[in-house]
């Protein structure tokens, strides 16, 4: 899942380059969460990470390339899909994971900052789209398994089902101001599962 821009993830894991990348991405995430995209500065990130400015400028070059790499790393580090044996159980696990991420003080602020930047920056938007594509593809097999078990109709679009779980949670985060609690996560999963069983995510509907 390559992102446009620098490609620091191709180095040997565990080496100095990997350690520098980890430190810089941690610093970039902290800075994003604290100050937002508009105030993200490569020199400040280098200072926070304890590495030379030239290293950061040479490897990432621009703020958008750095954010793209941060999102790529976050997708790689995200927890793997949970398998519970039922579609509703799997979707609840997904919803609760999304909810925990979005209510985390650092992660929630970071996502808000990146989403806000993506509205007016095409490269950041592309990086964000790729992040979510990775996460949706990670969870899509739970819907295919539900089709195999006869829980939902054959032809159900797994990507749409997974997106339907997250959508109400992001709506609460970004627009409503309502509590993003576990009950809200479970309701989102229940609604998506019910809609899938009813055939709402079949093609041409």
UniProtKB/TrEMBL annotation:
Residue stretches making up the HTH tetR-type domain: 18-78
Gene Ontology MF term list: DNA-binding transcription factor activity; transcription cis-regulatory region binding
UniProt cross-references to PROSITE patterns, sorted A to Z: HTH_TETR_2 (PS50977)
DNA-binding residues (ranges): 41-60
Keyword match Flavoprotein: no
InterPro entries in alphabetical order: Homeodomain-like_sf (IPR009057), HTH-type_TetR-like_transc_reg (IPR050109), HTH_TetR (IPR001647), Tet_transcr_reg_TetR-rel_C_sf (IPR036271), TetR_C (IPR011075)
Pfam families: TetR_C_11 (PF16859), TetR_N (PF00440)
UniProt KW keywords: DNA-binding, Transcription, Transcription regulation
Name recorded for this polypeptide: Transcriptional regulator
Lineage: Bacteria, Bacillati, Actinomycetota, Actinomycetes, Kitasatosporales
């Amino acid at each position: 899942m390559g992102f446009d821009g620098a490609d620091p993830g191709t180095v040997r894991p565990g080496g100095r380059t990997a350690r520098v990348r980890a430190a810089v991405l941690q610093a970039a995430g902290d800075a994003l969460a604290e100050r937002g995209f508009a105030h993200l500065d490569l020199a400040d990130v280098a200072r926070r990470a304890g590495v030379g400015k030239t290293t950061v400028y040479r490897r990432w070059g621009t703020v958008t390339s750095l954010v793209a790499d941060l999102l790529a790393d976050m997708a790689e580090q995200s927890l793997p899909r949970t398998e519970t044996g039922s579609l509703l159980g799997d979707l609840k696990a997904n919803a609760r994971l999304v909810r925990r991420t979005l209510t985390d003080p650092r992660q929630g602020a970071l996502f808000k900052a990146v989403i806000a930047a993506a509205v007016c920056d095409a490269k950041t938007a592309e990086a964000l789209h790729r992040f979510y594509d990775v996460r949706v593809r990670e969870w899509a097999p739970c819907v295919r398994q539900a089709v195999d078990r006869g829980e939902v109709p054959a032809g159900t679009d797994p990507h749409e089902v997974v997106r339907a779980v997250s959508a109400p949670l992001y709506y609460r985060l970004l627009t409503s101001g309502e509590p993003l609690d576990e009950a809200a996560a479970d309701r989102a999963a229940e609604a998506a599962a019910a809609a899938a069983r009813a055939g709402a995510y079949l093609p041409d509907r």
